[in-house]
């Protein structure tokens, strides 16, 4: 790890200035990912700008919108009565991630900023276009059991590691950002990026921009939700495939469906077509099976991850069935 | 008569120290003027070091030195003649790189952080050569060395002629030692020819012996301290090159140097369970009598050492089978040398044998438990000797009852609970019950305390606790008055803690030294105490901390009285103990039986172990609490072997890709089900004074097969390549 300086600005503006003026500076909140990256030499910021003391810790529900401050911690959000009552899918997804110790440190904003867990990204002796553009992708032709089946490029096949973000994608959250030129709102689907030719960019934040919070509009998905995470051990493992499923069922008809996958793409993978297909249909296993087929049409696999297609299909059916309680 | 201490679930004598953090592990020792070391390791897997540029590292703050083959002080024990490729890795001796992660330099600085950072500044260039790390792509390099003899009983490959047969290939991946405590050492040359070490080791004496030869020092000039070890499982059975690196560094900088390696280095510097490919051919008559077993294995080793273990051992004697042949080979790859990992080779071999037995039972349409009972070996078919004790059939019955084996269906996929498929599986395990040679000293003080010393180790099972219990029964002295001290090279000789033999070996020495102590006390009483004037020493016995005399109940004396009478502050005796002729007359083994009930999710392939029952036939149980914990630990290791553990190498680079706790999956609590441990707890009449056989290894041996067999029972899918991850159980998918 390199030597670095550490500042704790008193205001949001000072924090943003500190980052904007210094290309090698990074915000730090829980640090559960950044410290690993620094210890491995993946990133070497010369300055850390600690935002933990900024007033970004609120959890409130007003005007039919849930607002989560950027430095609210994952365990607190997961256990919050407002979240458990109105957004149970988010609570389930949070609890599926990491370990209790990590959730006690990790923040809402930091969780969105997590970098991929691709082994080649973490090992600085290996090629990786995301870490060192132009060096090649180690995972293509390497060990890629954990890698993407959707939206990958010939530059990068890494996946986004968060569970929380899969639920936020399904729930149409909005990321609230402050920056040197003022604030802006980024729809969650537009926050993370696909790798394309710039895999070094995980998201669409601009220089000096700080996530201050996330908003989730009230929704009818309070009862028929399920977050399914399939992994290699029962806890503290990244998803092979995860599914965020939310249904609004009236009588025997699905009025609305939300469906997103984790562990399969460079960003939370929302399944709009499958959602559309389910709308107006009955919540039956047969319809869920059709939705799963629709959902995986565009999948493309690599040497070790072909299993993710049937696993995703089966997981979608299982998660929808659990959500619908059929 | 008091209740014997052996058999009690006594609390660990060092439990309080451990839970309060007062127990000091090797890395906890702070020495005056101590410096910190970090390794620079090779990112190439084969070749030569072309150049090392340490200038930037040496300029970094706090850095004392950067040591490599270019400037290391010579190690006198490294042989200078033509290098024999099988002489082990001589660290910092020359420019050769044999494996990825091999240390090429060590940086010494005044803080750990500065050492680690400076290590990243050392620029090493390499002349890379082609490497090979894939077992399956290099099977053509398989060889046998002189110690690896083929075994044949009866007719070779007789299984092929049997009416019912199974032929299958079983694969286990490379598994890595990942105890919580990292490896390393603190080295201090107190004088140019006196070396003091704080080590993580399973045997302080063996460290002393290795370094005595390497640095050509008198034995007493090497002092090794290892009072507590935070898990070892075999990885601390030898001195590793990285430890020699720290000793070399301490010599060069003339200060104490502490090295604690990183988690990723645990994959490359402290051995591992070698990946192995095994083939079993097995045949039986239609009524289930085994007629032949052929067991072949090929396992990984390093370019510079041949590591062998008993992979095919169990197949030779576990079942009464007239025809058995085995064949075992090694493939040298550009990896570091493997080492024993709990259960060692038997854990690998039992996965193949006990899976094949299960597969054959399905072909026979016979309960696999019944099949094993039919083929029970009443005597050892390999050695042609009776077993010293064997209660395996009882163990099968006890375990079957506890797990609810009667609920199992012969046909797979018949049971469901909450939408999950349910399966039951079982297996057996076996490991040699050893007894080596050990010495213990005992000091009985006039204050009534007994202190016993032996250079044994405690890597977790509770060695001192067991020894106190054994000494309490051997003397009648209360456990609270007894201390057992271990982990110091200056203590009387004891072997390494490995191969499930500490209770048998060191416990026997404790038992013998206690007997000798009482004998001496009796002699002293007969010699000097008036009441004992006409008593023959041979008639003196003891009871509850007192000397008594056969046939003369009125004559007694407390142990302390004997010393007090002579105004002697203490009595010290030393005894060496080892087995005798019995090992030629009996075959000695511990046995285990594992039962597992599993759930398999039919859509996602996720396996959850719901209940485990493990039964141990390991003779007298000295402490049911620590023994139970040891068995549960073995089960957890077995769950890792069965379901989660696999070190992945990208063969293009020869480099591990999941070398951290997040990606190399050891089981977490949520993977660990309720586990019932049952003990036969019947004394072995032959092996040692306590009648205790070993149990560290049998806790794990066979376990992976029990899980795999249960998964087959649940799903009808036979997974022969560990670990059983969800992808291998998805319908219609090739793994």
TrEMBL record, chain A:
The keyword Oxidoreductase does not apply. Gene3D superfamilies: 3.30.465.10, CO dehydrogenase flavoprotein, C-terminal domain, Uridine Diphospho-n-acetylenolpyruvylglucosamine Reductase, domain 2. Keywords: FAD, Flavoprotein. The keyword Protein transport does not apply. GO terms for molecular function: FAD binding; oxidoreductase activity. It comes from the Bacteria. PANTHER family: OXIDOREDUCTASE (PTHR42659:SF1), XANTHINE DEHYDROGENASE SUBUNIT C-RELATED (PTHR42659). This is Xanthine dehydrogenase family protein subunit M. It comes from Chitinophaga solisilvae.
């Amino acid at each position: 790890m390199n030597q670095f300086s550490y500042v704790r600005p008193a205001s949001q503006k000072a924090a943003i200035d500190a980052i904007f003026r210094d290309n090698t500076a990074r915000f730090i909140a829980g640090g559960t990912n950044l410290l690993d990256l620094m210890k491995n030499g993946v990133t070497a910021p010369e300055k850390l700008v600690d935002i933990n003391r900024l007033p970004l810790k609120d959890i409130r529900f007003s005007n039919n919108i849930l607002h989560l401050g950027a430095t609210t911690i994952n365990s607190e959000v997961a256990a919050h009565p407002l979240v458990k009552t109105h957004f149970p899918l988010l609570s389930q997804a949070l609890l599926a991630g990491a370990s209790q110790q990590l959730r006690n440190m990790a923040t809402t904003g930091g969780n969105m900023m997590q970098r991929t867990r691709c082994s080649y990204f973490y090992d600085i002796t290996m090629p990786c276009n995301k870490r060192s553009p132009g060096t090649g992708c180690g995972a293509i032709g390497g060990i890629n059991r954990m890698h993407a089946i959707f939206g990958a490029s010939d530059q990068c096949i890494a996946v986004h590691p968060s569970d929380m973000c899969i639920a936020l994608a399904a729930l149409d959250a909005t990321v609230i950002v402050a920056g040197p030129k003022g604030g802006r709102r980024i729809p969650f689907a537009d926050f993370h990026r696909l790798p394309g030719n710039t895999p070094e960019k995980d998201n669409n934040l601009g220089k000096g921009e700080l996530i201050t919070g996330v908003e989730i509009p009230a929704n009818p998905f309070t009862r028929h939700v399920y977050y399914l995470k399939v992994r290699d051990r029962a806890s503290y493992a990244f998803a092979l495939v995860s599914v965020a499923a939310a249904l609004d069922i009236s009588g025997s008809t699905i009025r609305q469906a939300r469906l997103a996958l984790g562990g399969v793409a460079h960003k939370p993978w929302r399944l709009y077509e499958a959602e559309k297909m389910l709308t107006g249909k009955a919540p039956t296993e047969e319809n869920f099976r059709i939705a799963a087929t629709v959902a995986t049409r565009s999948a493309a696999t690599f040497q070790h991850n072909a299993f993710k297609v049937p696993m995703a299909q089966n997981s979608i059916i299982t998660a929808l069935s659990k959500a619908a309680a059929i | 008569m008091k209740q014997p201490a052996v058999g009690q679930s006594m609390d660990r004598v060092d439990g309080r120290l451990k839970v309060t953090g007062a127990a000091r592990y090797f890395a906890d020792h702070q020495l005056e003027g101590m410096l910190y070391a970090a390794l620079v390791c090779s990112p190439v897997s084969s070749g030569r070091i072309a150049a090392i540029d340490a200038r930037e590292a040496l300029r970094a703050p706090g850095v004392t030195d950067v040591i490599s083959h270019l400037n290391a002080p010579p190690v006198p024990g490294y042989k200078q003649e033509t290098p024999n490729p099988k002489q082990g890795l001589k660290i910092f001796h020359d420019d050769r790189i044999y494996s990825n992660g091999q240390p090429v330099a060590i940086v010494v600085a005044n803080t750990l952080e500065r050492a680690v950072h400076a290590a990243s500044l050392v620029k090493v260039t390499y002349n890379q050569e082609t490497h090979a790390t894939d077992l399956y792509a290099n099977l053509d390099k398989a060889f046998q060395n002189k110690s690896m003899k083929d075994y044949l009983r009866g007719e070779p490959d007789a299984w092929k002629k049997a009416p019912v047969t199974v032929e299958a290939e079983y694969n286990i991946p490379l598994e890595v030692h990942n105890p919580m405590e990292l490896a390393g050492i603190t080295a201090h040359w107190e004088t140019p020819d006196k070396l003091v070490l704080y080590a993580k080791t399973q045997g302080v004496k063996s460290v002393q012996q290795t370094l005595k030869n390497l640095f050509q020092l008198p034995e007493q000039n090497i002092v090794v301290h290892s009072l507590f070890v935070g898990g070892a499982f075999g990885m601390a059975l030898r001195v590793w090159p990285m430890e020699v690196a720290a000793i070399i560094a301490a010599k060069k900088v003339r200060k104490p140097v502490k090295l604690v390696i990183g988690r990723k280095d645990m994959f490359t510097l402290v051995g591992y369970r070698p990946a192995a490919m095994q083939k079993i051919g097995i045949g039986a008559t239609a009524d289930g009598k085994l007629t032949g077993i052929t067991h072949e294995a090929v396992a990984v080793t390093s370019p510079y050492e041949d590591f062998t273990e008993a992979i095919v051992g169990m197949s030779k004697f576990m079942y009464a089978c007239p025809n058995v042949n085995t064949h075992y080979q090694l493939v040298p790859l550009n990896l570091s040398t493997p080492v024993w990992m709990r259960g060692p080779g038997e854990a690998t071999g039992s996965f193949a044998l006990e899976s094949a037995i299960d597969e054959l039972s399905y072909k026979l349409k016979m309960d696999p438990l019944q099949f094993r009972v039919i083929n029970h070996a009443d005597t050892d078919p390999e050695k042609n000797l009776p077993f010293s004790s064997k209660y395996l059939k009882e163990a099968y019955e006890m375990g079957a009852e506890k797990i609810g084996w009667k609920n199992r269906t012969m046909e797979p996929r018949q049971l469901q609970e909450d939408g999950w498929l349910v399966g039951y599986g079982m297996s057996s395990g076996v490991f040699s019950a050893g007894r080596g040679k050990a010495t213990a000293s005992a000091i009985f003080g006039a204050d009534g305390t007994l202190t016993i010393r032996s250079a044994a180790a405690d890597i977790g099972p509770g060695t001192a606790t067991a020894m106190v219990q054994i000494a309490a029964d051997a003397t009648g002295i209360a456990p609270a008055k007894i201390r057992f001290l271990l982990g110091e090279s200056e203590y009387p000789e004891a072997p390494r803690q490995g191969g499930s033999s500490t209770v048998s070996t060191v416990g026997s020495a404790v038992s013998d030294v206690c007997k000798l102590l009482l004998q001496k006390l009796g002699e002293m009483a007969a010699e000097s105490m008036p009441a004992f004037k006409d008593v023959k020493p041979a008639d003196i016995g003891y009871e509850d901390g007192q000397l008594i005399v056969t046939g003369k109940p009125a004559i007694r004396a407390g142990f302390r009285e004997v010393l007090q009478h002579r105004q002697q502050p203490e009595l010290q005796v030393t005894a060496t103990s080892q087995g005798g002729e019995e090992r030629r007359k009996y075959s000695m083994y511990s046995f285990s039986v594992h039962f597992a009930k599993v759930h398999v999710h039919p859509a996602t392939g996720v396996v959850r172990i719901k209940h485990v029952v493990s039964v141990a036939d390991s003779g007298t149980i000295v402490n049911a609490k620590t023994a139970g914990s040891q068995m549960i630990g073995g089960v957890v290791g077995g769950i890792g072997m069965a379901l989660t553990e696999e070190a992945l190498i990208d063969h293009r680079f020869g480099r591990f890709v999941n070398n951290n706790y997040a990606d190399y999956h050891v089981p977490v609590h949520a993977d660990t089900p309720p586990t019932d441990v049952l003990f036969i707890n019947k004394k072995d009449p032959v092996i040692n004074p306590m009648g205790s056989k070993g149990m560290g290894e049998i806790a794990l041996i066979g376990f992976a097969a029990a899980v795999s067999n249960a998964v087959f029972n649940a799903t009808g899918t036979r997974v022969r390549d560990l670990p059983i991850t969800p992808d291998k159980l998805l319908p219609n998918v090739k793994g």
